[in-house]
Amino acid sequence: MKTKEEILNNFDPNQPGLEDATIFGLPFTAEQSEIIVIPVPWEVTVSYGSGASKGPKAILEASYQIDLLQQEYPDLWKAGIFMEQIPSKLKSQSKRYKKVVEPIIKALEKGKVIDEKTSLHTSLTKVNVACEQMVQYVKEQTVYWQNQGKHVVLVGGDHSTPLGYYQALAAKHSDFGILHLDAHMDLRIAYEGFTYSHASIMYNALQIKNISKIVQVGIRDFCEQEVNVVKNSKNRVKVFTDLDLKKEAFEGKTWQQQCNEIIEQLPQKVCISFDIDGLYPWYCPNTGTPVPGGFSFEQATYLFAKLAESKKEIIGFDLVEVAPGKNSDWDGNVGARMLFAMCGAFMKSQKKIKNNKIVFN
């Protein structure tokens, strides 16, 4: 087997992405890569649109078309990014339990009480157990690669998928925060009875004591229960709603100033959680719960670049809710490009890439 140095000396980054290689067409093994991507094809508790379980595959397939010379991080590809094989067992379990969930949601929509229906209550319990097993799987995979000295990131799946990832980060870091980009607060308590609902991920994250702060950006859809969670969080949750950010921008505040304020709210160590529906809906129109408003692709990557340049340390990230369309690769394309940009910010923060951005005279 060739060494990484031999590969770097002979690999042509200008050639088309090789489909028999790992993500982005890179020729490195897991051992030769700085970043390990854990794909989690899971969407059991989704209550509106579907398709997030296909996100990892869509991102992988689109990644081969991406040019490796990224302007902001031209040396990123040399660090090595390796994607684990998409777990077929997890995907089949997601499909199976999603069918179990459907009658539960339909019953709730009709105003029925699940606890009064023995069969539905039993199904709900089975779903919660299955989701807990998924969380444990993600935690174990993350810990495994952390112990190999790798920088681990996660690609979902719906937004329930990174809880085990956060638990693994907590096992390694005594204090860190989450920079949460999303259209939703995701602070519902066991939404629809599902302990590990995609709409409850940040509430569940708050139960991890090592997470000292969650800073939410672009929020534009929430309920009273979630607002109360924020108010009772003792300043562990800071919210920058889309309405407030846009109002400030309309009245003259720049995105640079807003990014500085966002970053200032974060603790020293930061994990990024990016639900793709935080973007304007036209970027990923097939995501499960799109909401009008949001921010641009460039606004998001600018925020990540500013964070990487700050004195804060990015310790990981997840990218979730990318759902491919039936007749379009657009969502996967956007997801793959966002993943590459986030890897660049991560590696820059970790001082694993050398060159600064390319400047054209």
Highlighted features:
alpha/beta; Arginase, Chain A; 8-stranded parallel beta sheet; 14% strand; globular
Describe it.
By secondary structure, the chain is α/β, with parallel strands linked by helices. The protein has one domain: Arginase, Chain A (3-Layer(aba) Sandwich). It is built from twelve helices and eight strands. An eight-stranded parallel sheet has the order 2-1-3-8-7-4-5-6, with helices on both faces. β7, α11 and β8 form a beta-alpha-beta unit. α4 packs antiparallel against α5 and α5 packs across α6. The mean pLDDT is 94.
Please render the helix and strand layout as text.
Layout: H1 4-10, E1 35-40, H2 55-63, H3 76-79, E2 81-83, H4 88-109, H5 118-147, E3 151-156, H6 163-172, E4 176-181, H7 201-206, E5 211-219, H8 224-231, E6 237-241, H9 242-250, H10 255-264, E7 269-275, H11 297-309, E8 313-320, H12 330-349
Parallel strand pairs: 1-2, 1-3, 3-8, 4-5, 4-7, 5-6, 7-8
Helix pairs in contact: 2-12, 4-5, 5-6, 10-11, 11-12
